[in-house]
Structure formats: structure tokens, C-alpha cells
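**Reference record**
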Amino acid sequence: MSLYRSAAIAGVAESRLGIVPDATVLDLQAEAAIAALADAGVEKSEVDALFCTGRWGRTPQLEIGEYLGIRPFYSDGTAVGGASFLFHLGHAAAAISAGLCDVALILYGSTQRSRKERSLGVKQGLSGQYEDFAGLPNPVGAYALAACRHMALYGTTREQLAEVAVAARQWAGLNPVAFSRAPLTVEAVLASPPVAEPLGRLDCCLVTDGGGAVVIVSPRRAKTLPKRPVWLLGHGETHSHMLISQMPDLTVTPAKEAGARAFAMAGLAHRDIDILQIYDSFTITVLLTLESLGFCAPGSSGTYVSDGRIAPGGEVSLNTSGGGLSYCHPGMFGIFLIIEAVRQLRGECGARQVGRHETALISGTGGVLSSNATCILAGD
């Protein structure tokens, strides 16, 4: 079954971002939902499908549905880490295509910065016993292992990793709501305090509060809306492991399979993509994902991102919001990849708007390089 143009993104929005001590996680999701519905020109009463996940509640869909007064006909709480919302995008399109719903709302929110909820020692239940005893910090230690492997195999350098952080900061400097906007250099990234060798603090994503919302509609409903819809052309998803010790190859992520399916469904090639939004939980995540998606050969991603190629004015428009490294990262970043891609495709990004913006690829990674969903989008 193909999801090609089976659904359109009609509205996107963030809540307040950064440090929001006076808000609950429900407040932030409500703020984003209200703004996204207004952006779409859709009434809350029309929402008949609800998608959300997060560690903030035992039953997130029930809690946010009650809070917003939404009683959906279809609901999905797929939880595979930060990639979850790209999984939700494909699932919403499938549900719409099957006639199970007409207007879907994808939500996420977190107050991890204000409430100091982020922990590097999250227990992983039954499977965790096989790694916890070794003291590996989670998740940064897992990504550090992957970075070490890539360096050992291909000669990738810390300077090349730092290029990802520097480019993200340059994009963030053009984004008025980005959390970190001060200029950043490769030297500053290399000098940042070590977290897990070879990753320093500035190789790691932010810890912020924030929420996001995305409105997905049927083709029929899309024709009636005031704004230009953004169409889903291709979608692929998969997951390969829970623990980093069980990852089949530390340098090849599930984006290889998910991306191939997305490209095949969309009927496009890599050269057809104008904008890339790649999950950047850590600098190494971007390098591994670019290779797994096929934008560069194995071992060549360090060169691919260097010399300003992914910075504003470079050859590749990548993570134009500033990404999880500089824009925001409320624990799970995937929904913000969708938001930025839609705004770029609509031409709504002001100073950071890229010239070519007909197509976009968004690729979300979850867990410890465990899951991936890749979506290809296009304007009307």
C-alpha cells in the first residue's frame, strides 16, 4: 500500500519554548494545539484522531484528550523515542487513507528543563540488566560508542563532528525563538566539557521545555483550507534493537531501510530533495543518518558536512531551525522536524528561508539509534 498524497499537513505550531516554569506539560501541548489548529483553519471539534506519546504520563492520550475535550475515533500512542512523531505521521496518513478518520492531531510536550526530569540513567526494564551493570551512561554513552566506531573505521575527526554543531548554531542565529543563538566555533565545540568520549557538551542536544503540534487532514479536507497544504509523498519506518550492544552495525542506522522505502514510495531520488531535517540528538547522529539514507557514501559524512556545506548559504539546507543542538530539544525532537519542514515548504521562515523549497526529507531517530521513520514531503 502506498501513502503517496494520501494525506496533507494543514497546520503546525510550537508552544512556548526554552525555560517555561509556569506551565505544565498539558499547558504546553494545549498552546501548540490551539495554534496549529488556527494555522490550519480547522476547528477543534473536527479533530477525530489523536496521536501523542511521552514519558510525562501513564496514559498520555487519555490525559491530553480529556484536557483538550477531544474524543477521538482513532488514537495512536506509538512510543519509539524521538522518532515517534514521524511514525505518527505515517500512521495518521494510513488511518485517513483507510477512512478511519479525517482530521488528525499529533501532539508532544515536555517540561524536562524546568522540572529537571532528564536523566542519563533511565532504566530499561528487563533488557537493561545486560548493560546497566557496566555503567554506560544512557543515551549519550551509546552514541559515543557509535562515534568511536565511526572514527576507528573511517578516520572521522572531532572537528568534523563539531561542524554539525557550528552549522546548527548558525541556522539558530536566524531563528528568533531558538534557545542558543550566540556564535559558535569549531574550537569552542572541541573545548566544551567532555560528556562521553569523544562527545563533549556541545556535541549533545539541548535540554529545554516545549511542545509542538501538527494537524493532518484528508485530501478532501485539504482542498477547503486557506493555506497551501504540504503533502506526504513517502514514508518508511523500522526499528532494529533496544540496547546499543544489540545494534547490528554501529555505523548503519535503521534509516537505511526506512529511507529506502520512503524514496521508493515518493518516486524521488536524492537529487530531488531540497531540504533536509535530520534528527540531531548528538552530532554523530547526523553523520550516521546522512550515510544510512544514502546522501553520502559510508565513511564520507565528515567531509559532507565540512567547510560550511550544511550552514546557511551552503550547498545543503540541513536543520534550518537550528535543530536539537541549538533550537530546542524537549526530550523528543521529532515533531519539530515536521514543523520546520512544513514552514520551509510554505516559504514562511523569514531570514532562514531557503531558496529551493519544493521538497523536504525529514528523518527521525529514536532510542539509541534504535528506530527511524523517514518522510518525504512536498508543497501543493
